[in-house]
């Protein structure tokens, strides 16, 4: 027997043990990596779902903020228009009523009601005064009702 023939099986056996050990280590590492990959994939799915929830929440909040801003803008514009309208109508209305002599005329009518000497003259002047006030107020009420009904 030669040295080669005696050492050959021993070397082959040692090589097989080393290869089995390396293969076992590599296989365990591959299994561990597969488990880690599965765990990371699962975690990535959770993170993706969280991201979608956060994205949806941000979109809803953005829509809500935009609606609030739009409402605030329309409220401010409406208040400005109403204020300007009251100022314009008030100044024009007072000017027109003074030009037509309505405040002085109504004052005179009420003084006639107060100074009437009999009850039927008081009732007569009261009817005339209320009729004149109705004639003054009714066109304003009509216009206001038309404006409100066309706004709807």
Provide the low-confidence segments as ranges.
none
Order of helices and strands: HHH
Shape: rod-shaped
- Ends: how far apart? 116 Å
Helical run tally: 3
Task: Profile the largest sheet.
Answer: none
Tell how many strands the DSSP assignment holds.
Answer: 0
Strand content: under 5%
- Helicity, in percent? over 70%
Strand-pairing-aware structural class: mainly alpha
Number of domains: 2
Keywords: Membrane, Transmembrane, Transmembrane helix
Transmembrane segments: 71-102, 122-145
Architecture overview:
- The structure is a single chain.
- With 152 residues, this protein is mainly α.
- It folds into two domains: 1-85; 101-152.
- It is 95% helix and 0% strand.
- It has helices at residues 3-100, 102-115, 119-151.
- Helix 2 (102-115) runs antiparallel to helix 3.
- The longest helix has 98 residues, at 3-100.
- The radius of gyration is 49 Å and the shape is rod-shaped.
- It starts with a helix and ends with a helix.
- The model has no long low-confidence stretch (mean pLDDT 85).
- The chain crosses the membrane at residues 71-102, 122-145.
- Keywords: Membrane, Transmembrane, Transmembrane helix.
Which descriptors apply to this entry?
2 domains, 152 residues, mainly alpha
What is the secondary structure topology, with strand pairs?
Elements: H1 3-100, H2 102-115, H3 119-151
Helix pairs in contact: 2-3
Keywords: Membrane, Transmembrane, Transmembrane helix
Transmembrane segments: 71-102, 122-145
């Amino acid at each position: 027997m030669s040295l080669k023939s005696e050492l050959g099986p021993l070397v082959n056996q040692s090589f097989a043990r080393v290869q089995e050990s390396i293969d076992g280590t590599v296989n365990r590492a591959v299994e561990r990596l597969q488990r880690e990959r599965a765990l990371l994939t699962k975690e990535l799915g959770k993170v993706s779902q969280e991201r979608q929830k956060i994205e949806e929440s941000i979109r809803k909040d953005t829509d809500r903020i935009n609606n609030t801003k739009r409402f605030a803008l329309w409220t401010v514009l409406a208040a400005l228009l109403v204020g300007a309208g009251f100022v314009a109508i008030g100044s024009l209305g007072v000017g027109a009523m003074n030009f037509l002599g309505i405040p002085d005329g109504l004052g005179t009518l009420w003084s006639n009601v107060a100074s009437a000497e009999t009850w039927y003259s008081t009732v007569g002047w009261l009817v005339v005064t209320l009729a004149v006030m109705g004639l003054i107020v009714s066109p304003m009420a009509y216009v206001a009702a038309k404006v409100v009904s066309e706004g709807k």
